[in-house]
């Protein structure tokens, strides 16, 4: 689960992290009032969407030379102008794709006199089972280019969660940022506070970009991106209320109600599988045969008939789907349950696209029998390779 920048900063402030003064706003009037409450005389108006690259983004409804989603304002009047141009319009960034995201919230912050920008993030390193603290002296909007062109400017510090954050980790961060004196001490304390926030909140990712050094010698978190590990949200009911469903795909929201793992993709073949590894293999083999997956949908290992029916409906709601491939290996999940769900969903939504089903595992013969006697035009497949070839052929035949 992702949250907005202002929400991330409010959470980090509870751990002693130094952030600029700022107030969220849902309307132009609230943005103006927020600016009046800040010290000034310089303000920053920031679009709040769940995507990076806002500063370089462009609004669909505004001229091509219009400013992006992060703007400097030197007067209250400019704050009002920026707010009117941003709210309700669609911001397109490198992370939103061409569709962009509508801006429904703003964050008005106090201006900061920046001397230097840095980068700092924490993620779970699944390879080592530890927390990776990633640091660079090259903070700002082009950190991706830094990682690609000059990876030597990025330092990774690995922390064993069993040991926790130690003083030498803080010193390593300050050294990597090439800070000395009071700034060095601030960096050590900041790294410790961010690690404590990361672990306490069960974060999947915490990114500070940029972390800035001000001209009066302070380290400030100028922008923050925070996402929670969805599997741990049950431990954080007070954070769950921060979820902004307007930032999420409606199909993904619907899928979450049934505990389904669903991600919308750009292809035309819907995929329903059980298990993330099987999902990846299924998507790969579809592409290998000349088409592209329309989604990643994992029904999990213990799905019910109702869950499978819901999954099928979610796939079919996507108008881009021209065919569906069901690839199920029945272990805990029984093939006859999958078959019943497929038949029920297909009849309920009046299936109008080709459907290829590959079943294997527990109760597979019973499952195949249910499909055969369903009266539906279901194409059976013997294995994954056979299934991929058949669904691609069916989709291309329709096209």
Automatic annotation (TrEMBL):
Belongs to the succinate/malate CoA ligase beta subunit family. Mg(2+) binds at residues 209, 223. It is an enzyme of class 6 (ligase). It comes from Novosphingobium nitrogenifigens DSM 19370. Keywords: ATP-binding, Ligase, Magnesium, Metal-binding, Nucleotide-binding, Tricarboxylic acid cycle. GO terms for cellular component: cytosol; succinate-CoA ligase complex. Pathway: One-carbon metabolism; formaldehyde assimilation via serine pathway; Carbohydrate metabolism; tricarboxylic acid cycle; succinate from succinyl-CoA (ligase route): step 1/1. Its EC number is 6.2.1.5. Succinyl-CoA synthetase functions in the citric acid cycle (TCA), coupling the hydrolysis of succinyl-CoA to the synthesis of either ATP or GTP and thus represents the only step of substrate-level phosphorylation in the TCA. The beta subunit provides nucleotide specificity of the enzyme and binds the substrate succinate, while the binding sites for coenzyme A and phosphate are found in the alpha subunit. It comes from the Bacteria. Binds 1 Mg(2+) ion per subunit. The keyword Cell inner membrane does not apply. GO terms for molecular function: ATP binding; magnesium ion binding; malate-CoA ligase activity; succinate-CoA ligase (ADP-forming) activity; succinate-CoA ligase (GDP-forming) activity. ATP binds at residues 46, 53-55, 112, 117. It catalyses: succinate + ATP + CoA = succinyl-CoA + ADP + phosphate; (S)-malate + ATP + CoA = (S)-malyl-CoA + ADP + phosphate; GTP + succinate + CoA = succinyl-CoA + GDP + phosphate. The gene is sucC. Pfam families: ATP-grasp_2, Ligase_CoA. This is Succinate--CoA ligase [ADP-forming] subunit beta. Its cofactor is Mg(2+). One of its GO terms (biological process) is succinyl-CoA metabolic process. Heterotetramer of two alpha and two beta subunits. Residues 9-239 form the ATP-grasp domain. Substrate binds at residues 274, 331-333.
